[in-house]
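User: My collaborator sent over this chain with a note saying "see what the structure looks like." That's all I know about it. Can you take a look?
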Amino acid sequence: MSNRAAIMSDKPVLYYFDGRGKMESIRWALAAVGVEFEEKLFDTKEEYEKLLKSGDLLFQQVPMVEMDGLKLVQSKAILSYIAGKYNIYGKDLKERLFIDMYTEGATDLMGLVIPSFFMAEPEQNKQLDRVKQRALNRYFPVYEKALENQEYLVGKQFSIADVQLLEVILAVEELHPTILQNFPNLQAFKARISSVPTIEKFLSPGSKRKPIADATYVNTVTKILFSWPVTMCDKIVLHYFNGRGRAESIRWLLATAGVKFEEHFLDTKEQYDQLLKNGDLMFQQVPMLEIDGIKLISTKAIQNYIVRKYNLYGKDLKEKAFIDMYVDGISDLSTLMLSMPFQKEEEKQKQRDLIKQRALNRYFPVFEKALANKKYLVGDELSFADVGLVEAILAVEEVHPNILQDFSNLQAFKARMIAIPTIKKFLEPGSQKKPIADETYVNTVKKVLSL
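Assistant: Without extra context I'll predict from the sequence alone. Here is the result:
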């Protein structure tokens, strides 16, 4: 291992927070190859903004590593550079392929661990259970099998895949100490890799390895990146106008999941400007959703967070792909509906005709066929696609009441969906479902956004 360390006058410099996060795997990689490094840790928002203003953060995000005269961003790119430079990336293309696959698996599992510390306690407990189940049933069995009669995951040499696997094993063990009890190969692997001199040194007290995330780390990250303190409460708040718009699909998803939420309506330009000044609107746009100690923007990102959080996104990659395809189709149709209230009267009729033609000839036939002999669009459970479709059907019916007369499967689907208790409640008078856009809503949006 020591032979892999480069003799350089300048040490790599790591820019990040004083905690693990996405930088920890980079620390592991450098430590494993015996490379000493320095760290510039952010404690204040001003330090982070200074780096942003320098233009060094290609995608306006950390981690960033300075080494070999380069300023590297994106965790995967940084790890690939380190692995290639210090010869822990396999001996040929085939080995690199397997190393990439194994590291991606480790990254996926670690991706469940890292955000858990930013979640409110009830959701955090669910996330920790999810980590345990995924480790036991999806990830660790793969590595256990791969390590049969092998010292390393790939080939006959230590690689970045071994480093990342040990990192994730130790991280999961901190949460679930007995997680390896039925994985003898992983137990032996852990013992072997932990005894590699450079890694043993990194695991010793006083090294640059960071401890498990605590409230100080969470609050520091949140303060710097989001400009607001972490409260870790259960309250969910939707910031938008008092109307449908791009927030209505979010209301539908939360309501379907049986989740209570508050709404802060934007009635004046001053309210909107205040959100901008607070730094809450990343792309200067609403809707914004406060949930799990995070302020989320961008409708699609918010939708994706909700459907993943409340298990409305299929059970595997194949189902997710079909859900995404159906949702994108629904979104195309819904976009025609969203823009109509802002059009001049003479254009509205053309838009109504276009909606009717697209629904009848392009979109509804697809969903009619997909629902033949099926309860849901994808798989055997309610999903994001079903919620989006019933929302779109009801919206189109407001404009064209008889639109479903030739679509018997969609009629039956609609009847089933609106009978679901949470959806039935959302459709009742007095719910948070918004009415069809009127002149008051349109004028408010224009005033607030200076349109």
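A starting point for your reply to your collaborator: The two ends are 62 Å apart (CA to CA).
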